[in-house]
Design a protein that fits this description.
With 124 residues, this protein is mainly α. It is built from four helices and no strands. It has a single domain, classed as Cytochrome c-like domain (Cytochrome Bc1 Complex, Chain D, domain 2).
């Protein structure tokens, strides 16, 4: 086989470019996940995070709410991502007196929707 025929492996530069483009959807899918998480967090019928929280890092998150803490420095506050997910799933497990609804426990949000919201707010 030679590299000039249609049945051969592509030349090295083509292979490198192809691999580079092949990696793009991975980064793109993370951005899409964060965008879906943002949509859910802002949706008054789903996450509705802005009803109680400000998200200072997101200019589209317009809210004057102060019932809950602002969603900032989330990686520092929740170094264990699973703890943040648990907080969304059922905050009453950590604090029985909380006013935050148990979004997962009460099936307001699905497992996947909670993961998307965690992806979104974990960036701030």
């Amino acid at each position: 086989m030679t590299f000039g025929t249609s049945s051969s492996w592509p030349p090295f530069p083509t292979l490198v470019v192809g691999l580079a483009f092949g990696l793009q959807p991975l980064a793109h899918s993370a951005d899409v996940g964060k965008a879906k998480g943002q949509q859910l967090a802002h949706d008054v019928y789903k996450g509705n995070c802005l009803a109680c929280h400000r998200i200072p890092g997101d200019p589209s998150a317009v809210s004057l709410a102060d019932i809950g803490p602002p969603l900032l420095q989330m990686r520092e506050r929740f170094p264990d991502r699973a703890a943040l997910r648990s907080q969304l799933w059922d905050p009453t497990a950590r604090n029985p007196q909380t006013v935050m609804p148990p979004f997962g426990k009460h099936k307001v949000l699905s497992e996947d929707e909670i993961d998307l919201i965690v992806d979104y707010i974990y960036q701030y």
